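Hi R.,

As promised, here are both runs. First protein below:
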Amino acid sequence: MKKLLVMLLALILVAGAVVLSISAEAETRTAECPYCEKTVEWQPVTNSNKANFGDGHYYLYEDIRAFGQKTITGTTCLDLNGKTATTNNRSLLVNTENSILNVVDSGTNGAVVSQNGSNNIAGGTVRVSTGGTLNLYSGTLRYISAEGSVTARGGVIDTYNGGNVNIYGGT
């Protein structure tokens, strides 16, 4: 019985070390920003730190589920990094007045996906509000509407009261 407990404890310790080593990989990285045209530090976005974005550079470290609505303030660069951020019934990224959101994908097949499971009254995968700007350099913005759902305003990009959209690449 004592050997079994020792083996179980050893297994728990090994599993904990593996989890710690995996989570330690989500680190700040240094890379060039196509918008800024300079080398900058990119902060990781994981399933455990899905906060709103302020001025800065962020990259998707992993596929993100239930990303939720994000309020963009200042100038924000988001690198999809070949990953996908998905949510239901909410705009994923919302530009507030006088903010800029730059979307790039340094990997392949990176996407921001909004899935409408029911009614989406004010939506869009990306909603760009008055005075806000969306610059899409690469990556994919996708909106999936459920059969029989109602979308009063939305789609892939919702420009609300004069938001600005510039598409330089991507889909």
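And here is the second one, sequence first, then its structure tokens:
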Amino acid sequence: MKDHESLNLSYSDVGAVRSAWRLLGCIRLKEVLVLQGTPVMGMVLSMRSPTFDRLAVGALFCLANFLLVAHVWMLNDWADIQSDALDRNKAWEVFLRKGIDPLSMLWFSMALLVTGLSLFACISRQTLMIASGIAGLGFIYSYPGVRLYGLVLAPSATHIIVELRRVLCGY
């Protein structure tokens, strides 16, 4: 018996795995990782002495924050698909070119949010509330029909508020 026959994988299983990898490939890893600096700095500054428990909570916090920031970027990419597809500087990297449909992108973004907020809930209620506020601001900033992105000064004010909240989330 061949190795792949023992796995009992159907073509739909393989397709689902490929779709999952394509969705993961839509996460703007560089941008998401860069935005980990502010909350991690807040977390490090709040840690009096590193113990195993505090480091474990720190690792959980980093994962939760990664998922939250990835959600915000993916929601923004989903909301901006029309303009990004027409922008010659962005058109080559839009998720549609990777074989991802808009509904899948939106659902994956929401899955990242729910998973991230669930992890924040394991840390503390205060951290969950701050993270929820960041998610809410991301929604207000990006979601079609609400979008503060196009208003003068609103994006700057939103970014300042989010960064302050991100420091507090880590602290």
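A quick note on the second one: The chain has a mean pLDDT of 79. Let me know what you think.

Best,
J.
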